[in-house]
# Entry
Amino acid sequence: MSIIERALQKAQQSKSTAAKKVMPPDAPQVPAVDLQAETLRSSAMELEQRSTGHTERRPVDAASLTSRDLKRIVEVDFDRLRAAGRLPPVHATRQTDEEMRRVKWPLLSALAGRGGGAPARNNVILVTSAEPSEGKSYTSLNLALSIVRDREMRVILVDGDVALPGLTPTMGLEGAPGLNDALDDTSMSVNDVIYRTTVDGLFFVPAGKWHEHSPELIAGSRMPWVIAELAERVGNGVVILDSPPLLATNEAQAATRYVGHVLMVVRADRTEQRAVTDAIALIDKSTPVSAVLNGVEASLVSKYYGQYYYGYGAKQGAYSRYRSGKRDAP
# Structure
């Protein structure tokens, strides 16, 4: 328990005691998520029923991530995120919002075990791809923003791509302590790397400082502890881990052992089928996997689910940097 948490608990106890004094005596194969319309409708109805009548988020108890109110507040700069290709253009925002609803409701249903399936091992979703530049960071951020629109939901968005962070620089936290530091330094608490954002209900964990032993840290004994701590702190919400591509580094493969669900992003106009199957083969066999098709041709929108908008300002040569082990200087 941190100093701030203890102070808050003491203040709450003092307030309770004072109130009592003035009163008169009298908180094998991995199945894919079902994307059928009936599942989407039933999930939507359930989420809307849970949200009806609520104008504020539920109070957070003293053991949660906001017990210290996370004093470090990070401004979410939507213009910068759009310029970096992490958000859709303004004219495509509404369509993307609808597409993300089609992704989030089956995922939330799968995590909770609705529709006859068993509940996931935890409320952590790992977002990955076979290769770089397929839209995983875009999907992670937009999925997080979609989920927090439910006033009862919180999201901790984690930049787990410690070799080539995609979200950390655009959130203005390059060089800040993050996931890798919490894994490397046993004296650090998970609370030390969680930042509150200006988007209500959204929290962020930067990638942290990268070094050559990062794959061993993510595959090590402290990783499941960090995952469990994040899952506990988000309460009834979701942890979204934006991980490296499966075929580019070893970190994502190791991390799939500890999460509740894997969301594989596949670029429709680029990713070869063999790359997708090779990547899926690396995922822990006990972890359910879903796929989202990114960059679908406009002519197929009416037939399938629509088109994600990604690629604006995408980094070039990312795959070669992964393979060489090099990253851009901060």
